[in-house]
Sequence to fold (288 residues):
Amino acid sequence: MNKLVTALIGLVVAVMVFCNGVLTEHTSLYFSNALIHGVGLITAIIIIIVGKHRLKDLQAAPLILYTGGLVGVVTVLLTNFSYTYLGVSLTLALGQVGQFLISLVVDHYGWFGLTRIPFNKKKIVGLVIIGLGLIVMMFE
Amino acid sequence: MIYILLAILSGFSVVISRILNAKLSLKIGLYQSTLFNYITGFALSVTLLAVMSGNIGFNPGVPSYAFFGGIIGVLVVVLQSYVTHRVSNYDITLLTFIGQLSTGVIIDLFLGNTIPTTKMIGGVIIFVGLLYNIWVDGQDRKKDSLPI
Fold:
């Protein structure tokens, strides 16, 4: 059941990239970004109110942790921009490449206080294959 | 090509924001951290809109589902936190990967999005590379769980 939910996340993300992309095509990059975050903000507020979630100990978290939302803006802008030329599946596939690459680095160096997971050299094969795919994509 | 590079960069920002939000949620709670995610995000979005003098307004024929993306974003955040401690990291990577790409392909086909051939072939090769590395992770897992 939980695995089904997990696969569902993938489906939902694809639908989200699509919806946001369509919005961008009918408006503009920065306006759609503001709309998307505005709708999300209203949704989040409703959840807090309906679920009666308390806002407390806000100062317990270091300020840097509150910048996640700012980074999220970058995500929305980049995926919307790419979608207009690449469509859903390619934008997602390339996003996965990016996630994979940064995860390798973050895990290997143990950044953000996460457990150090040294780079498995077998993955070089996969990286080469990915690199090949990227080169192929560069051709017109 | 710029679109390719920026799509890859989006993967960087996804991971970074996910880590920051997860750590924040440990301190102040899941829905609370989501709220602040959108407060700061919205503030920045509006600022960018003003600074970049982006076009405000809608071209004709905006389908209503175009607005669902914002709501779905919140759903994604909640679902990801729900499964994080219930499903292994490996399974999350594999299942979201498959879920994303199969849905993405279906959407693109359904829309009749003609993707240039080289992009499609390159995409398939990338898919193979990613799948291979996910498989390597799977092998490592099996090695770790073998009884001594």
Observations:
- The mean pLDDT of chain A is 91.
